[in-house]
Amino acid sequence: MRFFDYLYISATIGFTVYGQLILKWRISQLGPLPFEFVDKIKFLVGLLLDPAIFSGFAAAFLASLTWMAAMTKFDLSHAYPFMSLNFVVVLLLSGWFLSEPMTSQKAFGVALIVLGTVIAARG
Q1: How does pLDDT run across 69-110, given as a tens digit for each residue?
Q2: How far is CA 123 from the centre of its chain?
Q3: Residue 12 is inside which H or E element, if any?
Q4: Global pTM value
Q5: Closest by alpha carbon to 26, among 57, 50, 49?
Q6: Distance CA 36, CA 25 (A)
Q7: Which of 21, 38, 43, 88 is the most exposed place for a label (fewest CB within 10 A)?
Q8: In this predicted model, what pLDDT tens digit does every residue of 29-69 receive, in sequence order?
Q9: How many CB atoms lie within 10 A of CB 113?
């Protein structure tokens, strides 16, 4: 059934969005990137060892796997426009979970992305 094929695309979006949100959330808690080069390296290595950030990287890996599965079911020209929905979901959830501002310009841009995705997916 074609519905189940779309679950691969949905999972790709879900894993990608999770990874982006968890990275931003955790990095925001750990503070800004230090100025000195050696301190930057220590900071970035520390980020890599953080369990939450590691889960974001694991989600990116899982997104890659589900995307490969989707590629066995769809033409790239059909499936790829759905990846633009990452922008929509990240924008909405970053406002909700991370208290980032949602402006009318962002909302209009998201509406254009959705419209473009619908047009591209039907074409």
Answers
A1: 999 999 998 888 889 889 889 999 999 999 999 899 998 998
A2: 24
A3: helix 2-30
A4: 0.86
A5: 50
A6: 23
A7: 38
A8: 998 999 999 999 999 999 999 999 999 999 999 999 999 99
A9: 17
